[in-house]
Design brief:
The complex is a heterodimer of chains A (about 450) and B (about 100). Chain A is an alpha+beta fold and about 450 residues long. Chain A is built from 16 helices and 20 strands. Chain A has 3 domains: about 230 residues, FAD/NAD(P)-binding domain (3-Layer(bba) Sandwich); about 100 residues, D-Amino Acid Oxidase, Chain A, domain 2, CATH 3.30.9; about 55 residues. Chain B is α+β, with helices and mostly antiparallel strands. In chain B, the strands form 3 sheets. In chain B, strands 1-6 form a two-stranded antiparallel sheet. In chain B, strands 2-5 form a two-stranded antiparallel sheet. In chain B, strands 3-4 form a two-stranded antiparallel sheet. Chain B is globular and about 40 Å long. Chains A and B meet through helix 3, strand 12, helix 6, helix 7 and strand 16 of A and helix 1, helix 4 and strand 6 of B. The complex binds flavin-adenine dinucleotide.
């Protein structure tokens, strides 16, 4: 059935986050007729994140950081192992990270950043339809010949296109249904999700810079491990924005329900830890948010293209959950790969699964799939060796505190005792196995 | 500025902006499925406490859909507990200013 009075687009993008906006931007730049549908009142209003990595975006929009709403670049990173009261941390940074391109690492407010990005896509020629929910895809044909030919909005309005790029994020109802309807091959394992919970805590700019030892154009990203997350597969983070702090954590949903903990309880435990409490002293809560993160990695990736469809970003499961927590740049890269594939398909006039197979090849040749593959064991290691995230950090804390506790015994005695205390309760063989496994995380 | 280390969950949610859509709940719990389920994971798992024990009927849960942060955790944790969740209508629901 074809409607003569209905405009047909070259491509429709579902979702205006980093993945969808990159796809829309790149396709519009290449002269395709693109429509992007976003359910939020504006792009960004439903989105929560932490850092934005800029490698891909800097190729699309050179020196984007001069124009985009960047809060602060990340000029210093800190890893903190929290015990009950004790803590050990590692700090590193480079002066170079305070200068363009700022190590491609930025603290942003995603609501504002994504909105800015949507304006760039619009200026490049993409049509933004905001405040509309895509309910389903529109199909023609049946069985193996079934092909997506557009999207159905809530309220039954339909839009048609040669190809649909799905970028509906972690909680991806449209992609889930499309996978089933088109019979896309499942991944080796089921997708696993973490829940990320975050508070935006307002503090005067000067207070932040004094408290965190920053110049005005600098920022810090802190990762927390240890006691507040005991029994959970997860950890916390603190990022400095201009005049607010992002404080939050992410934990595997299954580990939370298993431990019988509610996300807000964990958040409050993190906030009450002596190390964290002092960072946020006097701050005013501006916003409380939550968002899922797909953590299944490489093994959970499904077939990602079918007749008339490509799946990108979080909806595709493109998050690296090793010590490098990256989702934004993978989302953007996959969006660009989908755009390039659509541009090529248009030239050949073939939008079938076969005609879109270049999407898979581009992903395999790019950073996304290579990185996901390198870290394909992360999920399994974190689940199989919970001690990595709690017992060992605790032990290291204890060791440092014992070594540096000033008392009246000799240093030899102090050290002997400290090492003995370190080794008791460490399951030797399991410890060796765990430490060997830990290499998969870095 | 109020130092607010001790905010309740309700206080926290009050700081987050929503575009309400009264009378159009986008999330419900199917009573029959819930009754069959042995667990009540959604009571704890939701970061916004959308699901609470129904004070009038211990078999049921009450749903405060207006507090939903639209993360989807209940769809994962409560797949067997009767959670029926769809996106709120366009522009409705949570509206992050920072995100
Ligand atoms: C707490 C937290 C911390 C994080 N920290 C980092 C970090 O430090 N570094 C990093 O690189 N990544 C981080 N991430 C991950 C990163 O945010 C995601 O990988 C990234 O946002 C994925 O982009 P996306 O475009 O695929 O999805 P999203 O950004 O989620 O965008 C999806 C869009 O689709 C829209 N949508 C969904 N369904 C529909 C529908 N039916 N109709 C219309 N529109 C729809 C949504 O409203 C949304 O705008 C973090 C995530 C969280 C939650």
């Amino acid at each position: 059935m074809s409607d003569d009075d209905q405009v047909k687009m070259d491509a429709i993008v579902v979702g205006g986050g980093p993945a969808g906006l990159s796809a829309a931007y790149a396709m519009a730049k290449a002269g395709l007729e693109v429509m992007l549908v976003e359910r939020g009142e504006t792009c960004g209003s439903k989105n929560v994140g932490g850092l934005v990595y800029g490698t891909v975006l800097n190729k699309l929009i050179p020196n984007f950081f001069e124009k985009a709403p960047i809060e602060r670049p990340v000029s210093r990173r800190t890893l903190v192992f929290l015990g009950e009261g004790e803590h050990v941390s590692m700090n590193f940074g480079a002066d170079e990270w305070s200068r363009p391109p700022f190590n491609n690492t930025f603290v942003v407010h995603r609501s504002q950043f994504d909105r800015w990005y949507s304006k760039q896509a619009e200026a490049a020629g993409a049509n933004l339809i905001e405040g509309m929910v895509v309910e389903d895809l529109v199909y023609e044909g049946s069985n193996g010949g079934r092909k997506a030919v557009g999207v159905k909005l809530r309220g039954d309005e339909e839009f048609r296109a040669d190809v649909v790029v799905l970028a509906d994020g972690a909680n991806c109802l449209v992609s889930e249904k499309a996978r089933a309807d088109l019979g896309l091959k499942p991944g080796l394992v089921k997708q696993e999700y973490a829940i990320g919970v975050k508070e935006i805590l307002g503090l005067p700019r000067g207070t932040i810079e004094d408290r965190f030892n920053l110049d005005p154009h600098e920022g810090v990203a802190i990762d927390f491990f240890g006691t507040p997350f005991e029994g959970l597969v997860g950890g916390g983070f603190l990022y400095t924005a201009k005049d607010s702090i992002h404080l939050g954590f992410a934990a595997r949903i299954e580990s939370l329900t298993h431990a019988g903990l509610s996300p807000n309880e964990v958040m409050d435990v993190l906030k009450a830890h002596p190390v964290v409490r002092k960072y946020i002293r006097g701050a005013e809560l501006l916003e409380y948010s939550a968002h899922m993160i797909p953590e299944g990695g490489y093994n959970a990736v499904t077939e990602l293209h079918g007749n008339g469809v490509m799946i990108t970003g979080d909806a595709a499961g493109f998050v690296n959950m090793s010590i490098y927590k990256e989702g934004t740049n993978h989302a953007m890269e996959s969006g660009v790969c989908a755009a390039e594939t659509a541009i090529e398909a248009k030239k050949r006039g073939d939008f079938s699964a076969q005609g879109l197979a270049g999407y898979r090849d581009r992903l395999n040749q790019g950073v996304v799939m290579k990185d996901l593959k390198k870290y394909r064991k992360v999920s399994e290691v974190l689940e199989g060796s919970p001690d990595l995230l709690s017992l060992y950090p605790k032990k290291v804390n204890r060791l440092m505190i014992d070594l540096f506790t000033v008392g009246s015994q000799t240093k030899s005695e102090t050290q002997k005792r400290a090492i003995k205390a370190f080794l008791t309760g460490l399951p030797k063989f399991r410890a060796i196995r765990d430490l060997i496994r830990a290499r998969h995380l870095a | 500025m109020t130092p607010d280390e001790k905010l309740s969950l309700a206080d926290k949610l009050y700081r987050t902006k929503y575009e309400p859509d009264p009378g159009h709940p986008h999330v419900t719990v199917d009573a029959a499925s819930l009754k069959k389920a042995k667990t009540r994971k959604i009571l704890k798992a939701c970061p916004a406490g959308v699901y609470t024990k129904d004070p009038n009927d211990p078999e049921k849960v009450a749903v405060s859909h207006e507090n939903c942060l639209e993360c989807g955790t209940c769809r994962q944790a409560g797949a067997d507990e009767g959670v029926e969740w769809k996106q709120p209508d366009g522009g409705k629901g949570v509206k992050y200013r920072y995100g």
